[in-house]
Amino acid sequence: MIEEIRAAQADALVRLAAVSTPIELSDVIAETIGKKGVLAAFRNRLGGLVSVDERKAVGAVVNEAIAAAQAAADARRTEFATAVRTAQLAAERIDLTEVIARPTRGHSHIVTQAWERLEDVFTGLGFQVAEGPEVETDFYNFEALNMPPSHPARSMHDTFFVDYGTPGSTVLRTHTSPVQIRVMQHWPPPIYAIMPGRVFRNETPDATHLPVFHQIEGLVIDRHITLADLAGTIEAFTKAFFGEGFSSRLRPSFFPFTEPSAEFDIRRPDGTWIELGGSGMVHPNVLRAGGLDPEEWSGFAFGFGIDRMAKERHGVDDIRVMYSDDLRFVEQF
Ligand code: PHE
After folding, report:
1. Partner residues linked to 41 by β-bridges
2. How far, in Å, CA of 164 to CA of 159, rounded?
3. Which of 115, 154, 238, 318 is the most exposed place for a label (fewest CB within 10 A)?
4. Ligand 1 surroundings by CB, under 6 angstroms
């Protein structure tokens, strides 16, 4: 019987070595080591042996045979699993250098172009760039800017409210001026900063207004800053951004956060004017909200629309088309 077992073991090992798929492997396992397999069948025949010693000896040979076949089967199973994994890796490999089609290269949107040029011009004049959050608290958007609750100037800002916290306490910022307060709170003066970003007003879109647009804020805080510094800075910016043939003027106006306040216009070489934005000397209450002592520090601020600049520069007559998905428009610039 031992001879028979050894022969069956050898046969099983040959068959296991010969299988070429996981399915064939399972079949051969069932037919050899499995419950109804050839090797397992010897176990049932042990009972027929009369002597205990013989039963033990033959039993050990059966166990050996099954263990050897099992080890061979396990080795084959691992081999198949590795092959599957290797094939999968090869199939899923991504060649990052592969060129699938000739790439088409886009370019920045005209508003992005204007934004970047404004940053270039102002950093050239010595300003640093800061950014603040688009979702603001009432405090930063209004109160710290000298617009306490129920201040009439709030009604000029058609505000989008965010459903968060106490009703009315969270807004989509209506201008970039709240970033002035954040900069004052975080940067020790002197401060020469510009703050570009997206702003929101609950307005019906028309040729000159959109509910989402962009502004750039300027803030200078130093000792002995006067209105002359504001006028000089606007003039230097005008020449650097628009060209030598352009000039600027300030017109008296009102903003709660500046005193005195002025709107500023740019004069084209042909003598016509572009109304650009608001400006003024930072109000003492605003300096205080920013954590600065108005006896020690003074400054000016200004703010204007970036979309408006892009519109002017490219002679776009309806601001809405700048955000349309019409590639014929976008690809012109
Ligand atoms: N925040 C003002 C606006 O949105 C513009 C402004 C900025 C005016 C800074 C004065 C100083 O209209």
Report:
1. none
2. 14
3. 318
4. 175, 177, 217, 255, 258, 277-280, 301-303
**What does the radius of gyration of the chain's CA atoms come to, in whole angstroms?**
40
Query: How many Cα atoms sit within 13 Å of 234 on the Cβ side?
Result: 27
Question: What's the CATH number where 253 sits?
Answer: 3.30.930.10
In a domain, residue 99? The reply is no
Residues 39 and 151 in one domain: no
Which residue's alpha carbon is at the smallest distance from atom 10 of ligand 1?
279
Q: How far, in Å, from the CA of 77 to the mean position of ligand 1?
A: 73
Number of domains the chain is built from: 2
190 domain-assigned: yes
For residue 274, the tally of other CB atoms under 10 A from its CB is 16
Domain edge (last residue) among 65, 92, 119: 92
Q: How far is the CA of 305 from the centre of ligand 1 (A)?
A: 10
Paired with 172 in beta bridges are 135
- Whole domain around residue 146: which residue ranges? 110-330
The reply to whether 258 and 120 lie within a common domain is yes
Among 257, 282, 286, the mutation site with the greatest number of ligand 1 atoms within 8 A of its Cβ is 257
